[in-house]
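Q: I'm writing up a methods section and want to include an example of the input and output format. Could you take the sequence below and give the corresponding predicted structure tokens, formatted cleanly so I can copy it straight into the document?
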Amino acid sequence: MNKLLSLLLFIATASFATDPYPRNPFIDVKQYTFQLEVNDSTDVIYGKASILILFKKSIAEFELDLTNKNAQGFGMEVTQIRQNGKTLSFQHKNDRLKITLDQRITINEQLSFEIDYKGIPQDGLIIGKNKFGDRGFFGDNWPDRGHHWLPVIDHPSDKSAVDFIIIAPLHYSVVSNGLKIEESFIDSKRKLTHWREEVPIPVKVMVVGIARFAVQHAGKVDDISVESWVYPQNRVEGFYDYAVAVKVLDYFHRNIGPYPFKKLANVQSKTRWGGLENASAIFYSESSVNGKGDHEGLIAHEEAHQWFGNSASENDWHHVWLSEGFATYFANLYLEHAHGRDRLVKEQLLDRDQVIKYYQKNPAPIVDTTLTDINKVLSTNTYQKAGWVLHMLRHKVGDSDFWKGIRQYYATYQKSNAMTVDFERTMETATGKDLTLFFDQWLYEGGHPKITGTWRYDAKTSQVLLEISQVQPGIYFRFPLDLKMMGRDGKTHSQTIQIDSKTSKTSLIIPFVPQELTLDPDTWLLFEGSLVKK
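A: Here is the clean output for your methods example:
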């Protein structure tokens, strides 16, 4: 089999490959309602889950994800499952909850199931003291840790509406996805808080935070309320640090498409991540609050996820760049908007350095279908390199067509799921360009161009003579290479040449004697290397 045919078969496989999650194509969760009770005397949570499921085929049983109770006493114990008042039999082992139906299911029938359970979460719900010694409970589901405390389909391909009904001691405030529709005192010691998110979202961004909070309404974008939820001890610093979220939301709302949710809360929390893009309730680490206002890029990254990842979600973990790469680059686009082109260039250069260093030990492509550990899908490839792919795509098609394609992609896949091939086809439709080679080499192949060579000026012909080689292992890349030449008197001449082979010789007519030659002067290419003057 020749090398080209092997490459084409690999790309075709990668485009439609699925991650190792055991999907059930015959069920679709339409609504979760989680009633959870927490207290201060124990870490045990008491849960009642109501799950509305659409059955696409008549089946006798189905499975959800829910962690079992282990020898150390952590995990969930299911006490009863009911459907329409009838108790159903079930098996709970290997972190899977198998439910047996007691009736024949009609195709496209919707049934609701009630699951009673309790336990101490192994993970996914962080219970403990914050940096000020105050107790709290913070959901932290990404990437597939929601099933440690919720019975769910813990995969981004299955999206649903969600309600959280929290019963907690009176001193706690509760923040979650969607809008708060009820807050009631149910007795002298407990309070019930009910949040509802009607937009379908993946479990990875379903969340609840139960803690002591200072809350500020930071502003509005159209009719969307932007809120700051911080520890009371960080009230002044937190309100200042999170205030920029209003400007960020306005930029994305105006440029990508309407914000997909009804409110945006920015929350100081115990998340293990620097920021976690929970739908309409972004959780940031405790250290994100310092009163310096120096986390603008992080806030922009997490807000960009509200469009890319939360609303238009990857259908497969191997294609997570559609979430993380987009958030990385759109944060940079916001910084360009807010602070100018130089800030964008600074961020792209920092990202390029990280990509080059990462590749030395990790030569895998962005879409890496060999990964079986979902926790490893987060990498410099899916963040910084994927962001660079979008940057180069913008340069290739031009600003107008780039934004046209982005808006069309989001409009098509909002509240839904997509794969890389869907984004590629959308961009081709929007731009009228064949982008097959671009997507194939930058997303399904590892590496980047590593350029060496020489240049010299021939006074007799008034030409610059270039000899350029790509010395990276693996494939050679095909790309436009921007050049800038400068003479002694400060005159400059810019020109773009097309590189289509591993080695090439090119001559350029220049109207002056150049003293310097710069590759990629405007920072549009992911590459490393330089040319030496002969």
